[in-house]
Amino acid sequence: MSIKRIGVLTSGGDAPGMNACVRSVVRTALYHGLECYGIRRGWNGLITGDIIRLDERSVGHTIDRGGTILYTARSKEFMTEEGQQKAVSTCKFLGLDSIVAIGGDGTFRGARALAKYGINVIGIPATIDNDISCTNYCIGFDTAANTAIECIDKLRDTMQSHERCSVVEVMGRNAGYLAMYVGLAVGATAVLVPEEKIDFERDVIEKIRQARFNGFTHYMIVVAEGAGSASDIAAKIKDAVDLDPRVTVLGHIQRGGTPTARDRVNGTKMGYLAVELLLSGKTNRVVCTHDGGFTNVDIEEALQMHKNIQQIEVDVLAAMTGI
Ligand code: F6P
């Protein structure tokens, strides 16, 4: 299989480090004498032909920028047969033989659809939710975690001064990886994630009491958005122990900001590996982290895999929160 023209796109929710990854795909492609094109606005760009030529300069000074210079979208049209046919026509018309798709599961489902029409595709996991099963790490997670931690540290100052209870909602869609990691990092009183069955009395109220017995007079409850709304949890706490919790929904602030070193370097390595895979004749793969290094798996297999919150995180949380 001979590779000549690579298209690169970002799709789904943006994640800090996506730009580092795009930059790496472009520079690795050019290094090997290939042409590289940016497909803008996710899979929609392939349908509408929203495509720009990328050179070394066009990705200069992007490694340190959050968001995505290629814009992003969640394309409903690309999920239809008709949308996919249009995308294939664009590839054929422009002679794009390969696509590197940076994003989450939805992005990979799009890549899998395109592969059926004979286009070479490589997926790179990027989402602050870190919920892609085939990989331990997704680009953007570290920056989002650090942003949430910084916000919660600030909240703690005022919660401690007023001896209050804070309920903080962390993003993650249906997954609790971000909330669990952040909760451990801020020394939360309790962390609620959708993967763990919640007994409100045991997992929240008793932990607040335990903290009080240990001499604390402020409480930090971290809730993954998939585990329930912070307002509902706050109301239940008020009912149960007559505290008057303050609610903070961190929201999209977690998706922005300068990427951390980890996201820049992982993004750069994964972009490089995606192009190397294409050059070695591989297609239909997802680049992933594994055992401290990198590997790649078949997209179909990647979409079938399942991952869970690490048991060590659950165990450590129990030890740290006293129950
Ligand atoms: O998948 C990333 C994510 O930020 C989730 O954590 C969140 O549930 C969702 O995207 C929000 O999507 P939107 O930006 O469309 O509101």
Tell me about this structure.
- There is one protein chain.
- This protein has 323 residues and is an alpha/beta fold.
- The chain contains eleven helices and eleven strands.
- It has a seven-stranded mixed beta sheet with strand order 3-2-1-4-5-10-11, sandwiched between helices. It has a four-stranded parallel beta sheet with strand order 7-8-6-9, sandwiched between helices.
- The model has no long low-confidence stretch (mean pLDDT 97).
- The structure holds 6-O-phosphono-beta-D-fructofuranose.
Task: Briefly characterize the structure.
The protein has helices spanning 18-31, 43-48, 81-94, 105-115, 141-162, 177-186, 200-213, 230-241, 261-279, 299-304, 311-321; strands spanning 5-10, 35-39, 51-53, 98-103, 120-125, 165-170, 190-192, 219-224, 246-249, 285-290, 293-298.
Q: Based on CA inertia axes, which overall geometry fits?
A: elongated
Distance between the termini: 57 Å
Major sheet attributes: 7 strands, mixed
List each distinct ligand once. 6-O-phosphono-beta-D-fructofuranose
What topology, given as strand order, has the largest sheet? Answer: 3-2-1-4-5-10-11
Count all strands and give the number.
11
Helix and strand sequence: EHEHEHEHEHEHEHEHEHEEHH
Radius of gyration (CA) equals 22 Å
Helix-strand makeup class:
alpha/beta
Percent strand equals: 15-25%
Report low-confidence residues grouped into runs of 5 or more: none
Q: Give the rounded overall mean pLDDT.
A: 97
Oligomer type: single chain
Helix content estimate: 40-55%
